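[job 0417] fold request received: SMP-30/gluconolactonase/LRE family protein
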Amino acid sequence: MKEENTTIKKIKKLKRKLYMSTLKNKILLSALLTSTIMAYGMAFAENSVGLSYSGEKETLMNVPISPSEQNLQTVTAEPWYKVSEEGIQLEGPAFDEEGNLFFVEVFDGRVFKLSPEMVLTTILEKNDYSAAGLAIHNNGKLFIAGLGDFETGGTVFSISPDGTDMDVIIDESHEYLPDDLVFDEHGGFYFTDFRGNSSEPDGGMLYVSPNFSEITPVLPNLSIGNGVALNAEENVVWVSELSAGRLHRVSLASPGEIAPFGTAVPYHFTGTPDSMRTDVDGNVYVAMYGQARVMVFNRNGLPIGQILLPKRDEGHNLRSTSMAFKPGTNELFIFTNDGDGGEGSQIFKTHGFANGTPLYSHK
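[job 0417] inference complete; emitting structure tokens
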């Protein structure tokens, strides 16, 4: 048993070194880690009468990271602001030009504003819209995707930053379940349709013209369309498919029009991908709901890093939903809640590979 514990400690130490090492050292450490794990596994198999958690029961029962993702460059975000002692479903963060951070709460439909002075106010009280995503127009109005009753139809509506002057952009009669949205430089926007399940691909991703008069299906037949984000050049739109666990990369010929042979699925997730953001280098950041982490992909959809949230190994802060870059920086603010686990609803902070993609609100 003493030899077994020593080997486990050695493996954990090698993992820590691997996360913090340079590329050259990563190759050497990765080989050493692999050989150590294999040797340990073979020795343990010879002496064991069955399977064992090997001292990592809580992690393995909650959120073990897939073996193919364990060697990614990894950082842990730090606590930044606690929104509530309760585990409420936060989503849709976006900064305005004054530095206010707006975000929504799904099941009660509330819209919040966190000022640069860290003063939290509610600008839209409880309602039946079930707000799930938020994007800011360059005229300052907040556009909000609402799931409604999650069945018959939701809405996209706009309000002023003080919660007044509501206009409905897409009403329930269209029978979409709008979940997330992003503006392009023309003032049109892409949004995801949250309908369907793993065996019924009824959702999708659509484009709304700048005058809001036309809705064009772009990527239909998704098993719950969820996150959506544009790259800086706006010639690629990314979409996460929640129930099928897929990352879609869609090359555009023009707004709302897919380029010839322009669709691909570069990654299949182990788990549930939620909202996403991009940076100026073309990297894509995807919140992993139920895993307390954000995965990062390069412009081709290959995984290159991950951001973990504190206490994930103990099963806390797992409901990571979304994130926002502070404009003009690589500061990344990640939203999560702990359900009934006792950690409430929080915002964590870290830094991405590059500055966030400039959004329509700041153009």
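[job 0417] notes: The chain has three helices and 25 strands. The mean pLDDT is 91.
[job 0417] exit 0
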